[in-house]
Design brief:
single chain, two-stranded antiparallel ribbon
């Protein structure tokens, strides 16, 4: 199987997939165009989770916090202060990154289960705050409705096709960011910290600083995904960012393959696209995905499509 995965990693694969992807609005109906847009958004958020879990090796089970912060920042600025959607992007990204730093700085020294429990607590706090209409601006349990559509100058991106292309261009930018991260000094350092933190510390690496940076970068990218989600759905509510969403993101990375871009995209498709093809069974997706996660962890603990270095190590 490892040899098969290696053959799939061909230079033409990426461009071919993008040509097919950009042609989606020309051949699919409105429902499937929306599903394809939603895939792009959730893929961005799953990739952000993979920065923390797959590349830095930290058990973050509250990643929906940053997804929700990005969505709510966009919703609040647009509906209450009349900001254009695209103008809210940098604010949402910065706010999510700052929250990531504030929340992670005290806990990055924790290991394994302790870190996991701490991040679960953050997710619970966010949902409670949103439910209780924090500062009177989050709309309580009903959330915020009437979010506007993105616009480029005088071009309103309100159609399903326009929204699709916007989300997929953003998705492409996220992929470029992740690829550049893997090739950067930061990416390589996170990889070595994940696999041998003691050795990295012995070599003089400030592991705490790099782990906080991983949280900040993952939070920023998740916040970006949240802004896209708010614009796509035209509404946000606390129910979209509950603990089960964090569990889903965590499971996507584990099942797909930690640190693997194709693996994360495969996991996202399995979780969010396949259930749409079998809508009558969509309510069982968590049950099925839970079974799949157990099976994968037992039979293939590195994930369905592991990182290239892991494939080479296992070969």
């Amino acid at each position: 199987m490892n040899k098969t995965l290696g053959k799939l990693r061909q230079p033409w694969m990426g461009p071919a997939l993008w040509v097919l992807g950009l042609g989606v609005p020309l051949v699919l109906d409105q429902t499937w165009i929306f599903i394809a847009s939603l895939f792009a958004v959730y893929a961005i958020v799953a990739l952000s989770q993979d920065i923390v879990l797959g590349r830095a090796g930290m058990f973050d089970m509250g990643h929906a916090v940053y997804f929700g912060i990005g969505a709510y920042v966009t919703a609040i600025l647009n509906t209450q202060f009349n900001w254009p959607i695209l103008a809210t992007w940098p604010v949402a990204v910065v706010v999510a990154a700052l929250v990531g730093v504030v929340l992670s700085a005290p806990i990055v020294k924790l290991r394994g289960d302790y870190l996991l429990v701490a991040t679960i607590g953050f997710n619970s706090i966010l949902v409670l705050a949103l439910d209780n209409n924090l500062w009177g601006i989050t709309g309580g349990a009903d959330g915020i409705f009437g979010i506007g559509v993105p616009a480029l100058w005088h071009w309103q991106l309100g159609s399903a096709a326009a929204q699709f292309w916007l989300d997929w261009v953003a998705f492409a930018a996220a992929l470029v960011l992740i690829r550049n991260l893997d090739r950067s000094h930061l990416g390589r350092t996170l990889y070595y910290i994940k696999h041998d933190q003691l050795a990295a510390t012995t070599m003089g690496v400030d592991t705490r600083k790099y782990r906080v940076l991983a949280f900040a970068l993952g939070a920023a990218l998740a916040g970006f995904g949240g802004t896209l989600f708010a614009a796509l759905m035209a509404a946000v509510s606390p129910g979209a960012f509950v603990f089960t969403e964090s569990v889903t993101l965590f499971a996507i990375v584990l099942v797909g393959g930690q640190g693997s871009i194709p693996g994360v995209l495969l996991g996202t498709a399995l979780m969010f696209v396949v259930p749409q093809a079998f809508r009558g069974f969509a309510q069982y997706r968590y049950f099925v995905f839970g079974i799949a996660m157990v099976v994968v962890m037992v039979l293939r603990p590195q994930g369905i499509w592991p990182r290239a270095r892991q494939v080479q190590e296992k070969a």
